[in-house]
Amino acid sequence: MRKSLLGYAIVEMMQQDEWADEYNPGQRFNVNQYDYDTLEDYLSALQEEWKYEVDPDNEFDDYVDVSDYIDFDSYELAIEEYQNKKTWKDKYDSEDEFDVNPYEFDNENDYVYALKEQWKETYDFLDEFSHIEPFIYDCVEDYKEDIEQAKEQKS
């Protein structure tokens, strides 16, 4: 009986070592595989560490769920993609004036196009000044200024 318990413990520890080798290579994260009875519990503890490493302020919780990932590199890449998209918002709509979510777009050009459509809808919703295209402007202030000047000239 004693040998079978010892054999079971060795087999269990070998399995836990396999978890660590696969999901925490090089013991990058300080999560001891022997503290967990199931792979699910071990992965959950690892995922908490991953999250703490790349999204400690829970900034991207609405967009990237760490529990959807079984390796750190994929999770980190997803967070980096969303951080990159956040820079688009900071660059083009830092005041969050327009209801265009950069996280819904695959590339910056598509986001900027949608944002400029929103400029048009906000400042020239009746399309009175169709000759003033928002797509040629780099910033909303310049577009808004030209629309306001056109309105003054029209009055």
Short description:
By secondary structure, the protein is mainly alpha-helical.
Distance between the termini: 97 Å
Principal-axis shape: rod-shaped
Question: Are there runs of 5+ residues with pLDDT below 50, and where?
Answer: none
Radius of gyration: 26 Å
Q: How would a textbook summarize the main sheet?
A: none
What is the strand tally?
0
Query: What's the tally of helices?
Result: 5
Q: Can you characterise this structure?
A:
The protein has 155 residues and is mainly alpha-helical. The mean pLDDT is 92.
What order do the helices and strands come in, and which of them pair?
Elements: H1 2-23, H2 39-54, H3 72-92, H4 108-123, H5 140-154
Core attributes:
155 residues; mainly alpha; 5 helices
